[in-house]
Design goal:
Number of strands: 5
CATH superfamily: HUPs
Largest sheet: 5 strands, parallel
Order of helices and strands: EHEHEHHEHHEHH
Strand content: 5-15%
Shape: globular
CATH class: Alpha Beta
Distance between the termini: 42 Å
Strand order of the largest sheet: 3-2-1-4-5
Helix content: 25-40%
CATH architecture: 3-Layer(aba) Sandwich
Length: 233
């Protein structure tokens, strides 16, 4: 990663969650001109889109696209279908296998759309908040995936063929959740604006015991910080 964007354009995938809010703040701090993209794919936790808008406003993004994706292409996921979201899973369960909250090829699709936006606006840099340490076992969050996508992006675009190398930046990939939170707090991220819960109530209150909530709460505890969002119960 370059030490500074020097005002160059970056396309940042912003879901509204803790990780993407931190990535956006990192890109802002490094001096990139921020162009955000969020995805409305009928996700159970669509409250995250409201959070994404707030996070983008707080970081002064130059532009934001909300890209609609037909939910029918994502079958078999608890985040997009009438399938129960797991709750209160043990550490062993969290660290083994691919959970039912996995959305088929989601990051491949999202990065491909972001790549199209980037090339359209003259950006050669994508930022995404994938993490291979404190994560839920999703295969499209691994460094191997990101490296493969970056190689494809440079083969598949005019910019890449013309020698304007496209880079996929993953500043959180090797950080624990606690380290991510500590970094975000150093940058002034307001985590009260973010939403992480996979199974919120009808008014957007986080459940506190889905995989995402458990990882978030443990991250704040390990960071010695207080999570300022509201949880059920």
């Amino acid at each position: 990663m370059s030490p500074s964007g020097n005002g160059k354009k970056a396309v940042v995938l912003v879901s509204g969650g803790l990780d993407s809010a931190t990535v956006l703040a990192i890109a802002r701090c490094e001096g990139w001109e921020l162009h955000a993209i969020s995805f409305d794919y009928g996700q159970r936790h669509r409250f995250e889109l409201d959070s994404a808008a707030k996070v983008c406003e707080a970081n002064g993004v130059t532009s934001r696209v909300v890209f609609p994706v037909d939910t029918s292409i994502f079958q078999g996921s608890a985040l997009t279908n009438d399938i129960a979201v797991p709750h209160n899973r043990s550490d062993d369960q969290l660290s083994s296998g691919i959970p039912v909250t996995y959305v088929p090829a989601r990051n491949t699709i999202f990065l491909s759309v972001a790549l199209g936006l980037a090339e359209s606006i003259g950006s050669h840099d994508l930022f995404i908040g994938v993490n291979a340490i404190d994560y839920s076992g999703y295969p499209d969050c691994r460094p191997e995936f990101v490296a493969a996508f970056g190689a494809m992006a440079n083969l598949a675009t005019k910019a890449g063929v013309d020698g304007q190398r496209i880079a996929v930046h993953t500043p959180l990939v090797s950080l624990t959740k606690a380290q991510i939170i500590q970094r975000g707090l150093e940058l002034g991220v307001d985590y009260s604006l973010t939403h992480s819960c996979y199974d919120p109530s009808s008014d957007g209150i986080s459940c506190g015991d889905c995989d995402s909530c458990l990882l978030r709460l443990r991250g704040f505890a390990d960071a010695g910080a207080t999570d300022s969002i509201t949880y059920a119960g």
